[in-house]
From TrEMBL:
Annotated organism of origin: Mycolicibacterium austroafricanum (Mycobacterium austroafricanum)
GO molecular function, one term: DNA binding
Superkingdom field: Bacteria
Lineage: Bacteria, Bacillati, Actinomycetota, Actinomycetes, Mycobacteriales
Keyword entries, A-Z: DNA-binding
Ranges for domain Helix-turn-helix: 49-96
Name assigned to this protein: Excisionase family DNA-binding protein
Keyword DNA-binding among record annotations: yes
Length: 99
């Protein structure tokens, strides 16, 4: 390789590295407040995430009602891999809002 080709390769590597670093910094990081503990819908288990079937059972609602709550934004969900799950805190907030 010539000097100019080496310099070009170094410059390209630097640009790619800076772009990747910027993209990683721009990702949204979840923020958990240490002063506010996460509440569970079932304090005995201490679990933080529940499947849709578990939420249906705990809230005693049907599948259509659950999906309507999710679509309306009344009950937020999170995606982990291919699964959608509901946080215990989201269910607790939803139930508090019913009263």
């Amino acid at each position: 390789m010539t000097d100019s080709a080496d310099q070009l390769a170094i410059a390209i590597r630097q640009i790619v590295k800076e772009s990747v670093d910027a993209a990683l910094r721009a990702q949204v990081q979840p923020r958990i407040s240490p002063s506010e503990p996460t509440k569970s819908i079932d304090d005995s288990t201490g679990r933080l995430l529940y499947s849709f079937k578990e939420i249906q059972s705990k809230l005693n609602i049907g599948r259509s009602t659950l999906y309507q709550l999710l679509d309306d934004g009344q009950l937020p969900s999170v995606r982990i891999g291919r699964r959608r799950l509901v946080t215990a805190a989201a269910v607790t907030e939803y139930v508090k809002g019913l009263a």
